[in-house]
Amino acid sequence: MTTPSDPNRVIIFDTTLRDGEQSPGISLNKGEKLEIAHQLARLGVDVIEAGFPIASPGDFEAVQAIAREVDGPVIAGLARAQAGDITRAGEAVRDAAKPRIHTFISTSDIHIEHQMRNTRADVLEGAKAAVAHAKSLVDDVEFSPMDATRADPEFTAQVLQIAIDEGATTINVPDTVGYATPDEYAEFLSKLYEYTPALRDVVLSVHCHDDLGLAVPNSLAGLSVGARQVECAVNGIGERAGNTSLEEIIMLLETRRDRLGYTTGAVTTEIARTSRLVSRLTGYAVQPNKAIVGRNAFSHESGIHQDGVLKNRQTFEIMDPASIGIDDAEQLVLGKHSGRAALKDALSKLGYELDGQALRQAFDKFKEVADRKKQVTAMDLEALVTDELRGDDAVGAFRLVSYAVEATSDARPPHAVVVVGTPDRGEVSGSFTGDGPVDAVFRAIDAAVGVDARLREYRVDAVTGGQDALAQASVVVELGTAGAAVRWDLPGVVAGDRVTGAGQAVDTDTIRASAIAYLRAVNVAARKLAAGHRADGALEPTP
Ligand SMILES: CC(=O)SCCNC(=O)CCNC(=O)[C@H](O)C(C)(C)COP(=O)(O)OP(=O)(O)OC[C@H]1O[C@@H](n2cnc3c(N)ncnc32)[C@H](O)[C@@H]1OP(=O)(O)O
Ligand SMILES: CC(C)C(=O)C(=O)O
């Protein structure tokens, strides 16, 4: 490839389809590799390392298909310093508009002695032959001294000199086992420049692994001493702990261009889509707190942060989610650390404009739920607010004060004791032994209040999924004066009237939600009775 004229332009070399695919459990077929390669081209990467053609017929075909079909980036195939590998890689990338062969051989003594079981002289010879062979097939040849950061820099420099002499146009210095620290890596590269001045005539590349979590900092350190190509993989996948994460390095360079001065050709708005595609096709989920593409990367949960973001996003955000292609980031996540500002904002998005006492009430309820529930979703919030807005637990109605239920798996039937606040008689209590815990609570309520309500419908739904989901209880009761022991005076109640009342309530505790819903249903029915409604809904003229 032609070297960019801007000296600070960083070449993005994507190895998702080669080193990324080396992650345990990942195996991409030709169609999947093509789909990812097309997306990488849309993302504007400069080089796609499409695979290791000697590895399998399938990988060869995938590299060949990418070379033939994907326009824009350089298409590279990896090859050991072996004639067969290089020939195969050459065949695979031949039809690309911009083909590259990337060949490598180790320069560390540990690899020379224990893996390749040969000598430094063999490595010098192997590198020379490999680069010469690759150069006979394509113009664009990249050479890597594998395990360089654990190798003798002088010997590595000697190998690099040979590779450059044979026509390598990019020299990539891998931290193969993710061992170097940023200072060491920068120093190592500086030494290579010192020992091999010809390195200034080619592109120096960095390829870092994340074994100690230093892949991105090491890549940045490499750039600081002159490297201008970064090898990286989407979502940071790759051998063992993975490679430099593509989205992190690109957004680091783009976001901190003010300080660092580097540019890339990346279309950053394609980052989120690329991450999702790679995650879906590889089966590798992205951790929620992953920088840039994690679900939480643009979310704020705590009240102080949310308040700041609502006032001005820059208070707690260094990047705009839209810049990586996220237009609908759920920025404010409601949980136990959230404050009124975020709650008010979330409610307003749901169409509820709450202030003053109503907001305070909703906030208290929200905190109560958030203490028991990891995250309060929009659906939870809506259920809570409508619950709160029903407001019929207030003055003039029955309201649940407390309940206790005893339910066991032995023969004893469940027993409930309930205390209810009444409009005119203070707190009254009742108890009942029922068929089930909910039945016991409902009948204990009847006993406390002094009604003979008939349960017509009862349903419990989970508002959202998960173990800590809010329960929404829906109850319909029928209440009548005929034969019922109604022991309170309601103005206008006519003997023989029967009416229905419906109530709903939301709580993390199913029994509590059920009890409140039941009392609300009783309140509604009692109000209807007082107003002279019949069970069929028609108005009964009161005498
Ligand atoms: C750091 C990296 O990520 S390097 C890339 C790693 N990626 C892969 O290995 C994925 C694809 N690999 C494969 O499919 C297989 O390993 C193949 C097809 C390449 C080779 O398979 P095999 O011939 O069965 O060899 P095997 O994998 O058992 O061993 C690797 C051989 O390559 C040799 N080798 C390793 N690196 C190099 C190199 N850069 N140049 C030359 N030879 C090398 C080893 O010394 C060993 O040779 P030996 O069998 O004579 O001891
Ligand atoms: C082949 C080389 C570049 C490699 O993947 C490594 O050393 O990690």
From TrEMBL:
The keyword Acyltransferase applies. Pathway: Amino-acid biosynthesis; L-leucine biosynthesis; L-leucine from 3-methyl-2-oxobutanoate: step 1/4. Its cofactor is Mn(2+). It comes from the Bacteria. Signal peptide: none annotated. Residues 10-272 form the Pyruvate carboxyltransferase domain. SUPFAM superfamilies: 2-isopropylmalate synthase LeuA, allosteric (dimerisation) domain (SSF110921), Aldolase (SSF51569). One of its GO terms (molecular function) is manganese ion binding. Its EC number is 2.3.3.13. Mn(2+) binds at D19, H207, H209, N243. Catalyzes the condensation of the acetyl group of acetyl-CoA with 3-methyl-2-oxobutanoate (2-ketoisovalerate) to form 3-carboxy-3-hydroxy-4-methylpentanoate (2-isopropylmalate). This is 2-isopropylmalate synthase.
